[in-house]
Amino acid sequence: MLLNIPQCTGQRKKIPLVPENLLKKRKAYQALKATQAKQALLDKKEQKKGKQLKFKRLEWFLHDSWRQQRDRVRLRRLEVKPHGLEVPDKHSLAFVVRIQRINGVSSLVQRTIARLRLKKIFSGVFFRVTPQTIKTLRVVEPYVTWGFPNLKSVRELILKRGQAKVKNKTIPLTDNTVIEEHLGKYGVICLEDLIHEIAFPGKNFQEISAFLRPFHLSVARHATKNRVGFLKEVGLPGYRGEGINQLIRQLN
After folding, report:
1. Where is the Large ribosomal subunit protein uL30 N-terminal eukaryotes domain (predicted)?
2. Of 156, 146, 153, which is closest to residue 123 (Cα–Cα)?
3. Quick one: 68-149+220-240 is in which CATH superfamily?
4. Which residue has better confidence, 105 or 96?
């Protein structure tokens, strides 16, 4: 359901922030996550008290070796024959989500994942579609999925999961004052401006998108018990065009 966000006006005093009902939901969600994180930390400490030394089986090392060898062969083929993807001219914005684990993959894949800021599984970022970004995505193609989000998806992601990095701290996007303070020099003074600048990339897209933290999407409760089944629901990695909007609805 789309949320009506107050439009920006020339007056900067008492700018309507986020709808009150959404703000309450976000605060309740943040409080719940904080409680869960605290409990998880306590549980982890309890487990460490009686934790036994774990040995890795030979199969584990063989599996990592196989993944690295597979990456080397795939990347070598990309160098010989890039297989360029033709992207429709009407699309300038894309959203990429990491949907696979990267344990044991090649160092190039790990560095590329870090450069894309996708260090956690089921995290996602916006990026501008260029030949260079397409080439970068080909390096990590077996581990991510990406496509072209519409305005509705951009709005819902930012409203529900938008966070910013301010002085090495992660803060939710609930205050237009923070947005104006850090992005005002680019003409962005409120949440609605931010949504517009992301949905329709301009000359300052790189700086504005860097202000946003990667989006940490939700994972279904049954995912931990039935990982194979959940990944089947998510779908295959790689390019999915406008189908990325369905995945955003599923994980947001």
Report:
1. 18-89
2. 146
3. Ribosomal protein L30/L7 (3.30.1390.20)
4. 96
Average pLDDT over residues 135-159: 92
Q: Count CA atoms closer than 13 A to 227's CA, side-chain side.
A: 6
What's CA 209's distance to the chain center, in Å? 11
Tens digits of residue pLDDT in 174-186: 889 999 999 999 9
Q: What is the pLDDT of residue 161?
A: 93
The chain-wide mean pLDDT, for the chain, equals 80
Counting Cα atoms < 13 Å in the Cβ hemisphere of 150 gives 8
Q: Which residues pair with 93 in a beta bridge?
A: 128
Extended beta strands in the chain, E state: 93-98, 123-128, 144-147, 163-166, 169-172, 215-216, 238-239
Q: How many Cα neighbours within 13 Å face the side chain of 202?
A: 10
Determine the Cα–Cα distance for residues 8 and 54; give it in Å rounded to an integer: 57
Percent of the chain with pLDDT over 90: 37
The DSSP 8-state label assigned to residue 10 in this structure reads S
CA–CA distance, 101 with 92 (Å, rounded to integer): 28
d(CA 216, CA 251): 9
Whole-number CA gyration radius for the chain: 20
DSSP state of 11: -
State the Cα–Cα distance between residues 135 and 84, nearest whole angstrom: 8
Among 140, 101, 99, residue whose Cα is nearest residue 122: 99
For the chain, the domains span 68-149+220-240
pTM score of the predicted model: 0.69
